[in-house]
């Protein structure tokens, strides 16, 4: 792997030998993603999969010392799956306990446009508890969707089963795919790293502009 010496991959590889830090960050990011943090959980899962790949290939990504612990693909997959289902269920419980007053609270509602909320309500009424499985595969709708499932008092066991099956399909598979097929993916990232960095930069710029716009509108309304 001639690309293994690239500075960005050398920097990333150090975390492949810090499993405790990575697992803790994985749990934290899964929880934040569940409550609407603007970083898709897929980014975290892909990153962890790459770290697991690096840890499984010490000949290309040398450890800091012999026998250093590594990010294990099986452990990471179990932790990610558990964190995702737990965080989804917490959101469901919040919706069940606090109902519409939480979903339409001004501090929550301002992050979700009317068309998004309309889609959530349509899906929950059309598909019932099975909508939670759809929300799991729909970034941006997970938080309000899971709140709505709780708000409508769908059975908790059914929510856990459907959401668990959906998470089992979507969460561990991403980590396993990256862990086992990391080489061609890293080659692709190396080849198009400037494009990837440009996209990341544009996303961050968009988030900054959106944050500044919201602050401006809020300040304008208070005056």
TrEMBL record:
Please list every transmembrane segment annotated in the UniProt record, as residue ranges.
21-39, 73-94, 160-179, 191-209
The record ties this protein, via InterPro entries, to:
DedA-like, VTT_dom
What this protein is called in its record is DedA family protein
In what way does this protein cross or attach to the membrane?
Answer: Multi-pass membrane protein
What family, per the record? Answer: Belongs to the DedA family.
Q: Which organism is it from?
A: Bdellovibrio reynosensis
Annotated compartments:
Cell membrane
Chief localization: membrane
Instruction: For this UniProt record, give its keywords in alphabetical order, as a comma-separated list.
Output: Cell membrane, Membrane, Transmembrane, Transmembrane helix
Signal peptide location: none
Note the superkingdom of the native organism: Bacteria
What residues does the VTT domain cover?
A: 39-177
**A Pfam family for this UniProt protein?**
VTT_dom
């Amino acid at each position: 792997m001639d690309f293994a010496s690239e500075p960005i991959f050398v920097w990333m590889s150090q975390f492949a030998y810090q499993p405790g830090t990575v697992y803790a960050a994985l749990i934290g990011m899964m929880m934040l993603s569940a409550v609407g943090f603007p970083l898709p959980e897929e980014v975290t899962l892909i990153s962890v999969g790459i770290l697991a790949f690096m840890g499984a290939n010490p000949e290309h990504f040398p450890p800091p010392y012999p026998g250093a612990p590594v990010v294990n693909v099986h452990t990471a997959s179990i932790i990610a799956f558990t964190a995702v289902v737990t965080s989804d269920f917490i959101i469901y419980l919040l919706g069940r306990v606090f109902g519409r007053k939480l979903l339409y609270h001004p501090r929550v509602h301002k992050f979700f446009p009317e068309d998004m909320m309309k889609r959530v309500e349509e899906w929950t009424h059309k598909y019932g508890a099975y909508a939670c499985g759809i929300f799991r595969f729909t970034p941006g709708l997970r938080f309000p969707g899971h709140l709505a499932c709780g708000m409508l008092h769908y059975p908790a066991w059914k929510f856990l089963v459907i959401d668990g099956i959906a998470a089992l399909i979507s969460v561990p598979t991403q980590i396993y795919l990256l862990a086992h097929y990391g080489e061609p993916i890293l080659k692709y990232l190396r080849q198009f790293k400037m494009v990837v960095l440009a996209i990341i930069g544009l996303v961050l710029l968009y988030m900054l502009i959106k944050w500044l716009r919201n602050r401006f509108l809020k300040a304008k309304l208070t005056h």
